[in-house]
Amino acid sequence: MPAEKARALVLKTTDWSETSRIATLWTREFGKVRVLAKGGRRLKSSFESGLDLLTVCSIVFLRKSSGSLDLLTEAQVVRRYQRLRTDLAALYAGYYVAESLTDWTEEYDPHPALFDEALDALDSFGAVPVGLRVMRFEMVLFRELGYSPTLQTCAVCGSDVAPPELAFSAAAGGVVCKTCQPRQRERRALSPGAWQLLQALAEPGEDWNHGWDAAVRGEVRLVLNHYVTYLLGRRPRMLPYLGS
User: Fold this and answer.
1) pLDDT tens digit string along 182-226?
2) Is 217 helix (H, G, I), strand (E, B) or coil?
């Protein structure tokens, strides 16, 4: 079995035995991988603290056959995010990023842009409002995985949309016009400011990182809560701890 090398973000670890643990890692090269770290629970293991949650590490692992855990042979710390130790909002947001990557992605389905976005989000918590940075991460996640909401035309009839009478429907997959709204019972009213912020978050560039009113950010947070919960079929565990 050839050894593979990758840069990885630690998403989750669970104890496997008295000395070993299983780790879920998000890698730039291979996407999500699940590995067995033999001896990973020992105080003086060869992995040191490379398997700490939300640590970026350089790994070497052996790919096993389908259905079997890969074998981790090396994990060296590359980066820690110190702000996560001092900022509770940033820590909760980091947990949410890890939970999202764990729940939304498939094993061995790489998305380099999503890997870069996750690390950039963890790095910038505090430099920009944490809640706003998480919403940007979610919109990149939707785009990479094929769930981008329709924002500039009606998600039902395809007609152009414009404020003020807009609504967002998770079931329809985006913004719905006034005519189509009655058929979308779970729709949420959408203010012009929230519509503009959603578009900014979805577009490339830095227009999303401007001064947005707190009420607008809170409205978009509720819209994304609604959308994420609908797509997953359940509410993510860390969702209630996110701010706007």
Assistant:
1) 999 999 999 999 999 999 999 988 889 888 999 999 999 999 999
2) helix
55 near 80, Cβ under 8 Å?
A: yes
Neighbours of 98 (CB within 10 A): 21
Concatenated DSSP letters for 80-143? --GGGGT-HHHHHHHHHHHHHHHHHPPBT---HHHHHHHHHHHHHBTTB-HHHHHHHHHHHHHH
> Token digits for 86?
């001092």
Q: CA–CA distance from 145 to each of 96, 119, 138, 236 (Å)? A: 17, 17, 11, 17
Instruction: Please report the domains of the chain, with CATH numbers, ordered by start residue.
Output: 3-82 (2.40.50.140), 149-235 (no CATH)
Separation CA 98–CA 132 (nearest Å): 17
pLDDT tens readout for residues 20-59: 889 999 999 999 999 998 865 554 555 557 788 999 999 9
- Find all residues with CB under 8 Å of 163, minimum gap 6, and list them: 191, 192, 195
pTM above 0.85, yes or no: yes
Residues 179, 38: Cα–Cα separation, whole Å: 60
